[in-house]
Structure to design on (384 residues):
């Protein structure tokens, strides 16, 4: 049982790592919000969900597991909404999406 | 002038650092603070007040005066914000935008035009920022009740777990501010007008101070909640716990109202008209 939980937690951490890498490496505002919105939400769902399962099945604290589950539900609703609102604000403020610059002459 | 200020700051800073050298070491059990009152609070707070959370017992019962004046400071901040920012004069020079609800057409009405204020077919929208965002509005509508329930939980469980009036009040105020951000300032002021917020922040301080006066009228010291035992129908120790709850509710109401007032005035630059 613990092995499954550990694997799930590592899975969540991989999602988080991907999200962080994406925020650091992507070229502009909109594409950075993509990993920030998706991978962080899913990483959180995986890790927190695993913790809820662990605390329910290994420790028997069902009420605490329920509370963690509630946190999960609210994060799952609000985090994509926040990303949506930020992208919306960027569009309204007139920020243009990044496009690949045309290759300069002399450099291939 | 700048040099003089710098010299003054350096002198004052070095005096402060010199003074702090005389402090007792961090966590010293022989220091005055932990050798006189702290042991009493730690040993006696449960049998005195039947409150499991020691911090709340100290804040709202043993040091009730202190917390009352903290509430009054917050109240004063709200009132000062109204005095500084609020503009009561109606400005004539403005253009307004209205949305015709059945067709979705936006009308721009110049300053001398006739505003369709009372018509149900028109909805006023902000001139700079037009949030017509279904996703954000729906999420807000879904989340706000849960935030409010959580805030009430934090207020009501202040004497059992971490929390209390200040924290719960801030969460309640944040729910209202979230509503104002997701919809607009006018729909928020329709739900909770300026008159109501000012009334509520006064009511919060009144509940706190009134509890103290009630204790005095019942024959004990100001804010000695054990005087409420007869009114609440419980023994004096439980009455102190209930008194803390009453006071926390007052603090929560005051903090919530002040948060909302601050937001209204800052977001609309005192006009309560258009804003985020």
């Amino acid at each position: 049982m613990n092995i499954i939980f550990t694997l799930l937690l590592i899975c969540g951490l991989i999602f988080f790592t991907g999200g962080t890498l994406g925020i650091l490496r992507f070229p502009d505002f909109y594409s950075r919000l993509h990993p920030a919105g998706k991978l962080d939400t899913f990483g959180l769902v995986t890790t927190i969900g695993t913790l809820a399962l662990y605390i329910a099945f290994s420790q028997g604290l069902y009420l605490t597991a329920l509370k963690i589950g509630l946190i999960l539900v609210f994060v799952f609703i609000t985090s994509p909404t926040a990303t949506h609102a930020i992208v919306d604000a960027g569009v309204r403020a007139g920020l243009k999406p990044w496009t690949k610059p045309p290759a300069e002459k002399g450099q291939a | 002038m700048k040099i003089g200020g710098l010299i003054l700051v350096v002198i004052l800073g070095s005096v402060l650092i010199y003074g702090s050298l005389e402090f007792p070491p961090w966590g010293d059990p022989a220091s005055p603070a932990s050798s006189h009152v702290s042991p009493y609070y730690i040993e006696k707070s449960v049998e005195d007040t039947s409150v499991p959370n020691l911090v709340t017992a100290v804040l709202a019962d043993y040091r009730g005066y202190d917390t009352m004046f903290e509430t009054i400071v917050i109240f004063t901040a709200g009132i000062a914000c109204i005095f500084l920012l609020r503009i009561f004069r109606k400005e004539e020079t403005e253009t307004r935008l209205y949305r015709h609800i059945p067709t979705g057409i936006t009308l721009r009405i110049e300053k001398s035009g006739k505003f369709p204020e009372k018509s149900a077919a028109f909805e006023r929208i902000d001139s700079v920022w037009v949030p017509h965002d279904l996703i954000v509005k729906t999420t807000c509508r879904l989340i706000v009740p849960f935030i409010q329930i959580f805030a009430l939980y934090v207020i009501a469980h202040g004497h059992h777990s971490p929390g209390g009036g200040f924290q719960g009040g801030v969460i309640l105020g944040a729910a209202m501010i979230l509503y104002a951000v997701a919809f607009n300032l006018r729909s928020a002021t329709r739900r909770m007008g300026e008159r109501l917020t000012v009334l509520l922040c006064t009511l919060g301080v009144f509940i706190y101070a009134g509890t103290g006066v009630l204790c005095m009228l019942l024959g004990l010291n100001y804010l000695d909640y054990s005087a409420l035992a007869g009114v609440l129908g419980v023994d004096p120790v439980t009455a102190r716990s209930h008194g803390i709850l009453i006071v926390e509710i007052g603090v929560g109401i005051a903090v919530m109202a002040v948060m909302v007032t601050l937001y209204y005035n800052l977001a609309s630059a005192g006009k309560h008209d258009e804003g985020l």
Notes: Residues 53-88+131-267 of chain B form one domain. Strands of chain B lie at 96-100, 105-109, 122-125. Chain B is about 65% helix and 5% strand. Chain B touches chain A at residues 129, 133, 135-136, 139, 142-143, 146 (CB under 8 Å).
